[in-house]
Design goal:
By secondary structure, the protein is mainly alpha-helical. Helix content is about 45%, strand content about 5%. Strands 1-2 form a two-stranded antiparallel ribbon. It is globular, with a radius of gyration of 15 Å.
Length: about 130
């Protein structure tokens, strides 16, 4: 997923090496290793795509997921602000209400279950 959204191939290889051993099992430790490796790379580089990769591959009930999702939103908002990409945040109607695209802590921003993100017509990478 991260390569398809503009991640650096060398960084993807680096982070994947961190959880090769854990990937040989199918228990919660493997999922946690995957999540932690991507979260830590996101923390080092402040890049939305790495937070997104780790966050999207965990269970909805995984408690640290919400904090990583908030970091992803914040990192991506910073990317949009600092780059000259032709992008805008949008609201996406859903059966359970509207997903408001915003940075947590700002007026109107909120997090809902499994949000869907889209940008028009920019790119998603944030790296």
């Amino acid at each position: 997923m991260s390569v398809a959204t503009g991640a650096n191939g060398g960084k993807v290889d680096e982070v994947c090496r961190e959880f090769v051993e854990a990937s040989r099992s199918s228990d919660d430790n493997a999922s946690e290793a995957f999540f932690t490796a991507w979260r830590d790379l996101g923390d080092r580089l402040s890049a939305a795509v790495y937070y997104m990769t780790g966050e999207r591959m965990t269970q909805r009930t995984h408690v640290p997921r919400k904090a990583v999702y908030a970091k992803m939103l914040s990192s991506f908002a910073q990317f949009v602000e600092l780059h000259e990409e032709d992008s805008e945040r949008v609201e996406i109607p859903r059966r359970r209400g509207v997903v408001r695209q915003g940075v947590p802590g700002q007026t109107g921003a909120r997090l809902l279950g499994q949000p869907e993100h889209t940008l028009r017509p920019g790119r998603l990478a944030g790296v």
